[in-house]
Each structure stands twice: as C-alpha cells, then as structure tokens.
Design a protein that fits this description.
Helices cover about 75% and strands about 0% of the residues. It has about 130 residues and is mostly helical. The protein is elongated, with a radius of gyration of 16 Å.
Length: about 130
C-alpha cells in the first residue's frame, strides 16, 4: 500500500483523469458542433477558414481531453490542446484581466507537463506502444 501511495504514476493517472475529463466534459462537449459564438470569435481573431479552426479547437478540447484521460496519444493530444489553450489565453483573452485568462493558462500548464512527462505507467500509451 505504501508503494501505491508514493507512486508518481498514480498521481499522474489521477491528474490526467481530472484534467482530461474536465476539459472534455466541461469545455469540449458543448462546442461540438461549434456554436456560432465560437465561429464568430475565431473570425474576430483573424484566423483563415474560421469554421475549420473552430472545429479544430472544439475537437482538441473534446477528443483531446478524452485521449489525455485515457493516456492514449497523450503527448500529441497535450500539444494540440496546449496550442488551443495558448490561443485562448494569449489571443482570445489578450486584453482581458488575468482572471479571464487564468483557466486557459492552468490548462496550458497541464498540457506542457503532459507533453514533456507523457502519460506514465498507468496508461494506454504504455500498453499500445510498449513504452
């Protein structure tokens, strides 16, 4: 029991589950399909083909969140979601007070950690890719 409690991999599993499921269920699921407000926001940021970029953001939150929770394609999902969170923090909320950017920055920091750390021992990445 002591080894389980002191396991960094167990902590990483719980972290991935919380971050991934929270992102997918609290943020991503409501954006598929992308609502008009999201498409208008992407248009206002100056992105070309705003519908495509709105879909990319929505899917990175929904599918990326679920993949992070499962520990499958974790680094790739963290990169995609991290880019989405960077755009949210530094473009969409560029002129807003810190409190408006805080959530995006927290998710961005989680994505940076997962990108460099990977999914850990208790993940589908380890099973599928034998890492």
């Amino acid at each position: 029991m002591r080894n389980l409690i002191n396991s960094p991999d167990l902590g990483l599993l719980l972290f991935r589950l919380f971050i991934g499921l929270k992102m997918a269920l609290a943020h991503g699921i409501g954006k598929v399909p992308p609502p008009a407000q999201l498409i208008e926001g992407v248009t206002g940021m100056g992105f070309p083909i705003p519908l495509v970029f709105a879909w990319a953001a929505a899917l990175s939150e929904l599918i990326g969140g679920f993949l992070i929770a499962a520990g499958l394609l974790t680094r790739q999902s963290a990169l995609a979601l991290g880019v989405t969170m960077a755009v949210a923090a530094f473009v969409a909320h560029a002129n807003d007070p810190f409190s408006s950017k805080e959530m995006a920055l927290l998710y961005l920091s989680a994505c940076v950690l997962l990108f460099f750390q990977g999914a850990g021992k208790y993940s589908l990445d380890r099973i599928v890719f034998k890492k």
